[in-house]
From TrEMBL:
Annotated SUPFAM superfamilies: Nucleotidylyl transferase
A GO CC annotation given for this chain: cytosol
Protein name: Pantothenate synthetase
Additional notes on this entry: The reaction proceeds by a bi uni uni bi ping pong mechanism.
Residues forming the catalytic site: H39
Catalytic activity: (R)-pantoate + beta-alanine + ATP = (R)-pantothenate + AMP + diphosphate + H(+)
Origin species: Roseivivax isoporae LMG 25204
Keywords, sorted A to Z: ATP-binding, Cytoplasm, Ligase, Nucleotide-binding, Pantothenate biosynthesis
């Protein structure tokens, strides 16, 4: 079994027309490729919640802060298609940049507030790129529902906000983070970790889990987060970009876990930026 690979809006529209004529609901799983079990879990959830599933594979140039990072991002289309084939995905949409951003494209979708903190504060313009491409992909796939992982929890909340604000009519479904056996959150960037960095990388999740446990017990966020960051650096991380307790609803900073909250972190190890978050 192989996955139909569609590369143009016209080819995608032809499939969508047929499905819609049959009264079938379309779900979408947007990805940038380099698929792992986390992505595949989203596809399975989408199949359980829609009649047809389109997985998109598009390395979006507008959400990278450096050309070098964009160029280094893994491109593994054929192996991605092989991973999707046993699941029976209805289509893999792999557009070229000009299919998403045709000549003369001059529009940016920007979500304020949610994007001013955490990754947004350290990666200027990143979430404008995310919001713009997600809006385009929602429109091109005509999806009724879309599935995103909670590992990128800030992104999940941004996409929920833009879908609601722009009346896109897409229900955005969050799915739990999938982890390796040692706790490291699955990420397409993990393949870039050299062996020593990969061995040390699970310290990020371990520190977050212990800090979250302390916060649930009433500990203050400032001291708890500072201690967790120091532990992460001691484990071999070169830099902890941020480690913060924030409310789930609007990502406002919290001094204590007095509302539904998550603990968020971004850190660098072996030249690779990893992010993670856990519920508190």
């Amino acid at each position: 079994m192989s996955v139909p690979i569609l590369r143009t809006r016209a080819a995608l529209a032809e499939r969508l027309d047929a499905w819609e004529a049959a009264g079938e609901r379309v779900g979408v799983v947007p990805t940038m490729g380099a698929l792992h079990e986390g992505h595949l879990s989203l596809v399975r959830a989408a199949q359980a919640g829609s009649d047809r599933v389109v997985t998109t594979l598009f390395v979006n140039p507008r959400q990278f802060n450096s050309r070098a990072d964009y160029d280094a991002y893994p491109r593994t289309e054929m192996s991605d298609a092989e991973k999707l084939a046993p699941l029976g995905v209805d289509a893999l949409y792999v557009p070229e940049p000009e299919e998403v951003y045709p000549e003369g494209f001059a529009t940016t979708v920007s979500v304020t507030g949610l994007t001013d903190v955490l990754c947004g504060a350290h990666r200027p313009g990143h979430f404008d790129g995310v919001a713009t491409v997600v809006t385009k992909l929602f429109r091109q796939t005509r999806a009724r529902r879309a599935w995103f992982g909670e590992k990128d929890f800030q992104q999940l909340q941004v996409v929920r906000r833009l879908s609601a604000d722009l009346d896109l009519g897409v229900e955005v479904v969050g799915c739990p983070t999938v982890r390796e056996a040692d706790g490291l959150a699955m990420s397409s960037r993990n393949v870039r970790l050299h062996p020593a960095a990969r061995a040390a990388a699970p310290a990020l999740y371990a520190a977050l889990e212990d800090a979250a446990r302390a916060l649930r017990g009433g500990a203050a966020a400032a001291e708890t987060c500072a201690a967790a960051a120091e532990r992460i650096r001691a484990a071999g991380y070169a830099e902890v970009e941020y480690l913060e307790l924030r409310a789930v609803s609007d990502l406002r900073a919290l001094a204590r876990a007095e509302a539904p909250a998550r603990l968020f972190a971004a850190a660098w190890i072996g030249g690779v930026r990893l992010i993670d978050n856990v519920g508190v």
